[in-house]
């Protein structure tokens, strides 16, 4: 089974970020602007530099989106918001650490990055939720996201 993931509004941009996937089932979550700012403050306090904070928040946000849908046969395709391989490798590593708490044998090759495109169900859902044209998505709770960081 494959899941395609897209986002509407980057983590670093102001406003709410929507993360969505579609594979027959449609799931979207929202990382509110306030939550992203709190996460950024927490990371700055822990690490003192702003290196990779956006990647850490994005990776931590993906886990609540996926956690109820994880199994050993799942393949995850993430839209290429970060085209450089170092960023993709960082996201993959962090996400694998989260996933392996639920599915210990999850293999790194089950996560890939590629252009999703505007015709993807994930893109359409993320955009619709961002524009408030779709059902109310699940909002990630502050404690859940911050505990992952």
Tags for this model:
6-stranded mixed sheet, alpha/beta, 149 residues, 6 strands, Nucleotidyltransferase, domain 5, 5 helices
Walk me through what this model shows.
- The chain is α/β, with parallel strands linked by helices.
- It has a single domain, classed as Nucleotidyltransferase, domain 5.
- Helix content is 41%, strand content 19%.
- It is built from five helices and six strands; from the N terminus they run E-E-E-H-H-E-H-E-H-E-H.
- It has helices at 33-47, 53-66, 85-99, 121-130, 142-148; strands spanning 2-8, 17-22, 26-31, 75-78, 111-113, 138-139.
- It has a six-stranded mixed β-sheet with strand order 5-4-1-2-3-6, with helices on both faces.
- A hairpin with a 3-residue loop joins strand 2 (17-22) and strand 3 (26-31).
- The longest helix has 15 residues, at 33-47.
- The radius of gyration is 14 Å and the shape is globular.
- The two termini are 28 Å apart.
- The model has no long low-confidence stretch (mean pLDDT 88).
Highest CATH level, the class: Alpha Beta
What overall geometry do the principal axes of the alpha carbons give? globular
Low-confidence stretches are: none
Per DSSP, what share of the residues sits in E-state strands of 2 or more residues? 15-25%
Task: Classify the fold: give the CATH topology.
Answer: Nucleotidyltransferase, domain 5
Strand order in the sheet with the most strands: 5-4-1-2-3-6
Named CATH architecture:
2-Layer Sandwich
Biggest sheet features = 6 strands, mixed
